[in-house]
Specification:
- The protein has about 400 residues and is α/β, with parallel strands linked by helices.
- It has 15 helices and 14 strands.
- Strand 3 and strand 4 form a beta hairpin.
- It is globular.
- It starts with 11 loop residues before the first strand and ends with a helix.
Length: about 400
């Protein structure tokens, strides 16, 4: 990291990464970019919520405290969290927080990262129809922090932002353009904060200015991005995070007529169909579990449904990597794996990598088995195409982006 400016010594950045029914928060030190606090609030909107505080996380001084809570919405959760931070003595007050950085799902085609003002907040509202599960909570977090930290600048870092560099032939849907223009219908892509961080980290690891290659974010949600000279040129997710790969509960690519057929035959409403495709499909539909660790365990026991699901998962990843290698002209720095599955599942990485042996990728079986929190290569020395495992860190990326936008 660059030397800390005098005005940032002893200061912190508050980062909020809100999901549809949860939020993750970190308070990161400007001195060393390490978190002094990590918070996870779960099951917002239910009667059995939970908030977990990790003080000095990932150190030998880590102190973990969990509380049962009931939060009606994200705003209630943020207010309670901020009160507890002072009550628990984590910070005496908030005078040392110089900025807040917020992950926001949808910002349209023009916003990547920007200082929050009234115009930006209106854009977040405008895109609620395309991000109904996330944008309202993202906006609520921003507005509550503005109340609690008056005068402290906030930066919105959009999950779609990294993908705004896609060319028009990559993001345009071939539907009547009157609808595309009226409703801003196009491929946006997601996991952008993760793809950006991982590709930057990979470039540094490889000693390059920018990364060119394929980045695979594989977790409960999955996406693959083609990156050229540090910029996205294509990605698998589309108008919503539903398009692309098989995921934990999302179906990924299907014939667009399939849901229409089911709606007509079964009398399913649009909202229920969305629920089926987003929350009841994917690995969960094929195996009963949306957790790849469960699927791997079932595969070891010979469960045919799990074996099929795992094969579908790997096949779709292989198919998209191959397509993106072609899009990139075959000249790449490497293939990156990140996310819960990408970072922690050598059993999935191995067949994916072996599919590209004829392209010059030589997997090192022993390196592939190693678990580490650091970036690492899993291919043999001299491999024409390198495969790397790069742990993602969205909160750090949001912090760095926030300080950059504010001119620090």
């Amino acid at each position: 990291m660059a030397p800390v400016s005098t005005e940032l010594k002893g200061k912190y950045v508050l980062v909020i990464n809100a999901g549809s029914s949860s939020f993750k928060t970190q308070i990161l030190s400007c001195d060393n970019e390490k978190p002094i606090l990590a918070v996870l609030a779960e099951r917002i909107g239910s009667d059995n919520g939970r908030i977990i505080f990790k003080i000095n996380p990932d150190t030998d001084k880590e102190d973990k405290q969990a509380f049962d809570v009931v939060y009606k919405n994200h705003g209630d959760g943020i207010r309670d969290m901020m009160k507890r931070i002072v009550d628990m003595g984590i910070l005496p007050n908030f005078d040392s927080i110089v900025a807040s950085g917020h992950r926001v799902l949808m910002g349209g085609p023009n916003y990547a990262e920007v200082k929050v003002d009234a115009t930006v907040k209106q854009v977040i509202r405008d895109y609620i129809p395309l991000g109904p599960l996330h944008n309202p909570g993202n906006l609520a977090c921003i507005e509550v922090i503005e109340e609690i930290l008056p005068g402290v600048p906030a930066v919105a870092v959009f999950d779609t932002g990294f993908h705004t560099t896609m060319p028009n032939y990559a993001y345009t849907y071939a539907i009547p353009q009157e609808y595309s223009k009226k409703y801003s219908l196009r491929r946006y892509g997601f996991h952008g904060i993760s793809h950006k961080y991982v590709s930057k980290t990979a470039a540094k690891f490889l000693g390059k200015d920018n990364f060119t290659g394929v980045c695979c974010h594989l977790g409960n949600g999955c996406s693959i991005t083609a990156i050229k000279d540090g910029k996205c040129i294509d990605t698998t997710m589309g108008l919503t995070p539903l398009e692309g790969l098989l995921m934990g509960t999302r179906c990924g690519d299907i014939d667009a007529s399939l849901p229409l057929f089911l709606m007509e035959q079964e009398g399913i409403s649009p909202s229920d169909m969305s629920d089926i495709l987003n929350k009841k499909s994917g690995l969960k539909a094929l195996t009963g579990s949306n957790d790849m660790r469960d699927v791997e365990s079932m595969c070891e026991k010979g469960d045919e449904n799990a074996i099929l699901a795992n094969n579908i998962f790997n096949y779709r990843v292989i198919k998209y990597i191959g397509a993106y290698l072609a899009v990139l002209g075959g000249k790449v720095d490497g293939i990156l794996f990140t996310g819960g599955i990408g970072e922690n599942s050598p059993i999935n990485r191995a067949p994916i990598c072996k599919a590209f042996e004829n392209f010059g990728l030589e997997l090192d079986e022993e390196k592939n088995k190693v678990r580490s929190g650091e970036p690492r290569e899993i291919t043999k020395a001299g491999s024409k195409i390198k495969a790397l495992v790069v742990p993602t860190n969205e909160e750090l990326e949001i912090m760095q982006t926030t300080l950059k936008i504010l001119g620090y």
